[in-house]
Write a structure and sequence with these properties.
Order of helices and strands of chain A: HEEHEHEEEHHHEHEHHEHEEEH
Structural class of chain A: alpha+beta
Number of helices of chain A: 11
Strand order of the largest sheet of chain A: 7-9-6-10-8-11-12
Radius of gyration of chain A: 19 Å
Oligomer: homodimer
Distance between the termini of chain A: 26 Å
Number of strands of chain A: 12
Chain lengths: 327, 327
C-alpha cells in the first residue's frame, strides 16, 4: 500500500465542499456561522504518548499543553475561548496521573475563561483529544489566506526554545541546568497567544500559529494566500539560551523547530503602529521578520542579504500541494 | 494508588460549576447558548481499538459507527446535526483502511447533512475521537432531568441485538448465518435516531440514548430526574432473532446490552397521541415499556407483575452516585 503523508491523506479523504461552515477544513479553526453577528471557532487536536509527548513528562504540564495547543489555534483565528471538550484514553484509572493532569488542564482553562463542557474517558493507550470552541465576530476571524504582497511578516515571542530542549534530550547539544529548565518549560508549557490574537483582529491580514516550525507553518500561510515571502533569519527573535548555541543549531531550532505556539502573522506596512499598539495591549513582544512578495515560496536571507538554506527536511510541509486540513 | 471508576474520575476532576454553558458536564450533549434563540449541542466520543471495536471490523462500518455514536447523543437532545470534527490516531497511513473508513463516515454524515469541519490525524494506536455539533432552539433540548412521576417510559426500535452479536462472538450462544449477519450489523452499524429526537422536542419530558445498556442508561436518567421507574421486561421490544434465544439470554441482552443507540424517553400520559404522531413522523417504532414513579431506583417486572432481577453487573452505572460526566 502506498504510504501517504498526513496532510495528503486528510486532503484526499476528508476534504469536502464547504456548505454550512463559513470556513471549513483548511484553516486553524473551523468557523461555524451559528447566528448572525457571531461565528463559532472550533479546533481539535489529539496528543498521543510517544508521539507528542514522552511518558516522563509531568502530568500537570501535559494537561496544560493539551489545552494550550488547541487554544493556540483559537489565538491564530483571533477568537475568544468559550469552552472545550476532552476525550481521554488512559491505560488505567490512575489517580496519581489524573489529579495533576486535570490541575494543569483546568488552571489554563480558568486563565482563559474556557469551560470544560463535556467529554469521554475510556481505557486505552494514553491519548488526549480536545476540541475547543471560541467566538469571533462574523467576518473578522484571522485567516491564513489574507496575506498580500508588500505586507510585513511578524512573529510573537521567541522561536526555537522547545526545539532546543528536544535537541538536548536527544543529546545533540548541551545547555546548563537553569537554561535547560527554561527551554524545557517552553516545550512543555507553551503559552497560547490568545490576547495577541484578539488584539490583532482588524489589524493583521493573516495569521497562523507555529506548531510545526516556522518554515512549515509560514509555508502553509503563504500557500493559502498565494504569495511568497522573504524572511531575515538574523531578525528571528530568540532567547538568550538559544543565542548561546552555535549558529547552525540556532537556525535549525528557529526555522524547523515546532512546538513554539507563537503567532506568525502579516499586516500592511501602514499598520505598523497598530501592530505595535496591539502588541502593547496584549503585553506580548512581536518582531518584524520579513516581507510578503508576489509569487510563491519562502526565501531566507541573513542580515547581509545573502540567501540562507533552510535546514534539511524543514520544507516537508511546505512542499505539500494539497491544502492542509489539520486544524 | 486507588483505582476509581470512569465516572467517578470525571466527576472528581472535571466537573466544574456551570457558567457560560446553558447545560454543562453531565448530559448527553453540552449545550452552549451561542446566541439568542439558538443553542449549540456538542458531544465528544472516543473509540479505541480493542476496547470499543475489534481489529477485524470492516473499516467502512467503523467509520459509520464512530460518527453514529456521536449523532446518537445529538438525537437524545433533540438537536439537529450541523458539523463534526475528527481526531484520528492511526498506526500507519494505511490507505486500505482510510478509504473505506472515510466512505462509511462521510456517507452517514451526508445522510444527516452533518459537515466535517476540521480535525487532526496523527500516528498512534488506532483511536477515533469525534466531536459533533448540533443546534436546538434554546430551552427546547431534551434533557435527562425532566422525567416526572406518572410519565410513561418509551424506547425506540428494538434492544439487545448488538449484545446478542457480542455473545455469539464470545461463543456464549449461537444464531444461524443470516441472523448473525443481522445482529452483527446492529452492533457495527447502529442508526442514530436523529429524526425521532427532533420529532420528540416539545413532547418528551426527558430522553437519553442507550449506549451502555437499558439498566445503566435509564438509571442515569432516573438519577438526574430524581425519580424511580418500573419497567415491564416482557414489553421490551426485541427482534425475532433475539426472541428466538432462551429467556435468560434475552433478558441479559435487553437489559445489560449496550451499543443499542436507541432512545429511551419519557412523556406525560396525556401526550401518548403526540408520541405516536412523532414516531410516525420519524418513521421509527416506539414502544411503551414502563412508568415513572416517585422515589428512586429502577424495578423490573414481568407481565405477570412479579419482580425480575436485573442481570448481574448491569447496575454498575446506576450505582454511581456522582453525576455521570460522560457525554
Amino acid at each position: 500500500m502506498a504510504q501517504l503523508g498526513e496532510f495528503e491523506l486528510i486532503a484526499r479523504y476528508f476534504t469536502r465542499p464547504v456548505r454550512r461552515a463559513a470556513l471549513g477544513v483548511g484553516d486553524d479553526c473551523a468557523l461555524l456561522a451559528v447566528a448572525p453577528g457571531m461565528t463559532l471557532a472550533v479546533s481539535s487536536d489529539m496528543l498521543v504518548e510517544g508521539r507528542h509527548f514522552v511518558s516522563t513528562v509531568a502530568p500537570e504540564r501535559l494537561g496544560h499543553k493539551a489545552l494550550a495547543v488547541n487554544l493556540s489555534d483559537l489565538a491564530a483565528c483571533g477568537a475568544r475561548p468559550l469552552a472545550f471538550t476532552l476525550a481521554l484514553a488512559l491505560p488505567s484509572a490512575d489517580e496519581a496521573f489524573l489529579a495533576p493532569f486535570a490541575r494543569g488542564l483546568l488552571a489554563l482553562a480558568d486563565r482563559h475563561d474556557c469551560e470544560l463542557v463535556g467529554g469521554d474517558t475510556t481505557r486505552g493507550p494514553l491519548t488526549i483529544a480536545i476540541t475547543v470552541f471560541g467566538e469571533v465576530a462574523t467576518g473578522a476571524a484571522l485567516l491564513r489566506s489574507g496575506a498580500r504582497p508588500g505586507d510585513d511578516v511578524y512573529v510573537s515571542g521567541t522561536l526555537g526554545d522547545a526545539r532546543l530542549a528536544l535537541e538536548v534530550l536527544r543529546g545533540a547539544t548541551a545547555v546548563e541546568g537553569a537554561a535547560f529548565a527554561r527551554v524545557r518549560r517552553a516545550m512543555e508549557e507553551p503559552r497560547p497567544r490568545i490576547a495577541l490574537g484578539l488584539a490583532l483582529v482588524g489589524i493583521a491580514s493573516s495569521a497562523i500559529d507555529v506548531s510545526d516550525g516556522l518554515v512549515g507553518d509560514l509555508g502553509h500561510l503563504l500557500h493559502r494566500s498565494g504569495v511568497a515571502a522573504v524572511v531575515d533569519v538574523d531578525a528571528l527573535p530568540r532567547s538568550a539560551d538559544l543565542a548561546a548555541q552555535a549558529v547552525a543549531m540556532q537556525r535549525k531550532c528557529l526555522l524547523a523547530g515546532g512546538d513554539d505556539y507563537e503567532l506568525v502573522f502579516t499586516a500592511a506596512v501602514e499598520r505598523r503602529d497598530a501592530v505595535a499598539e496591539a502588541a502593547a495591549v496584549a503585553a506580548t513582544t512581536v518582531t518584524r521578520i520579513g516581507r510578503i512578495e508576489s509569487g510563491s515560496g519562502l526565501r531566507f536571507v541573513a542580515a547581509a542579504g545573502r540567501d540562507v538554506a533552510a535546514p534539511a527536511g524543514s520544507f516537508d510541509h511546505f512542499r505539500t500541494v494539497a491544502a492542509p486540513a489539520s486544524s
